[in-house]
Structures are given as C-alpha cells and as structure tokens.
Design brief:
28% strand, alpha/beta, single chain
Length: 263
Amino acid sequence: MQVPAVIVCPDFKIAAAQIASVRGNIDANVVTHAAAIQAAGEHHVSVLVFPELSLTGYEPDLAMELAVSEDDSRLFLLIALSRQHQMEVVIGAPLRNLTGKPALGAIVITGDGAIRTYRNMHLGGSERTYFDAGEAPLALTVREHTVGIAICADSSRDTHPKAYADRGAAIYATGVFLNSEWYATDVPRLADYAARYRMLVVMANHAGSVGTYTSVGRSAVWSPGGSILVQSEGTESALLIAGNRDGTWRGEVAELQNQRATT
C-alpha cells in the first residue's frame, strides 16, 4: 500500500503596514513603501497590505491629477522588492480609467512581479465626487490562504466580506483611512465580520499622515471569532503581523523607522 505524501504548508504571514504618507508626493511615498517592504521581507511576510491611497495620501481632490496606471515607472522599485522577497504587496492608489473619473484602487504586486488591480466597489460620502466605483472583487491565494481584498467603505456593506467568505476566503484584508470619527463606526463592523464569517480580518490604517484629514492610526488584526490579535497603540509607523503555523494565528508588532508626514 502506497503511503500518501505529506504536504506541509509553509508558514504564512500577512501584515498591515501602518505608514505615514505625504500629501500628493508619490516619489517620497514610494521610498516609504520600499522601506516597509524591506522590513516585512526581513520578517518573512507573505502578504503586505498598505493603507487606502497610501501612494498619494488620502487626498481625493488630487485623484484625477495623480491617478497612476499599471505600467507607471515609479512602481518599478516596489516591483523589484516584491520579487526579491517573493511577497504579495497591496498598495493604495488612485487608478487611471480609460474614461471618466479615476478609481479608488489597490495595486497588487505579486511575488513574481506581475500586477493586478482592484477598484473599490462601494464608495463612501464625498468619494463619489472624485471616483468611479469598481464592479469586481479580487481574491489572492498565497500558500493555500485565500485573501479577499477590500478598501475602506467596502466594509460598510456586509455583502462584501460575505461574498469572499462564500468563495472560501479565510482572510479579509482592507486598506483604510480612518480619522477618530470614522474609526468609531468602522472598527466594530470589522470585528463583527471576523466573528460572523470566521475570517482573519486585517486593517491597515495610515500612521502620522496629515493632510485634508488626520489619521488616528491604530491598525489592527482580528482573529477568526472577533477578538483582537494585534493592534498598534496609535499613529506610530509599524508592521502588524499575523502568522499562521499549524492552523494557529499569532500576532506581533514590528516597529518601522519613525516618520511624520508633512504637507
């Protein structure tokens, strides 16, 4: 009788990158992203999630001017680092559309250097003035873990995480920009989704970004079941890492070089 081979899934780590973005300065923000990717690589992170509009800062009024395409040369450094560390990297950016307004989007750089994009499906408040909504979800499967990608106001509709859960995703990862008012309303929903859909929920908020709005930081990861696995204390620059080994999630915080955005 032939004994079946034992398949060992490598350790998996997903991290929220709480970084500070400079209003409208893509070049400076690329440098900050690169440093965070390098630090995440040293911690063997498999998937790294940046905040909403991390590449430009959360500045909807600049979206049309600063919208990027998939072949933007400013992404080349981040692509090279993603390939070096075999890491999936989710970056927040306004995405150029062929017609109409830009999308409030995410650029997903895969570990082999390919690029995929996700366009926010549910816009919030004044965002409709500056962006057109997307229509399709995006899920990544990395080391046997399926991750549903979200951007901030997506989580205002419980149908969004549910659609990923129904497709077998065990992780819901969202890049956000939350000030103190928005944090109070959005965070309880994310904890609820972790409990209701038995998903790991990863939320990457901005660190010391100051522009049109002021971020409150406090990025977090919730365990399946709804309890906090790991959370930042405030607006410090940090990686919030959730690691899965033998089916058990463990959290840790890794400090990044302290930064403070300037307008």
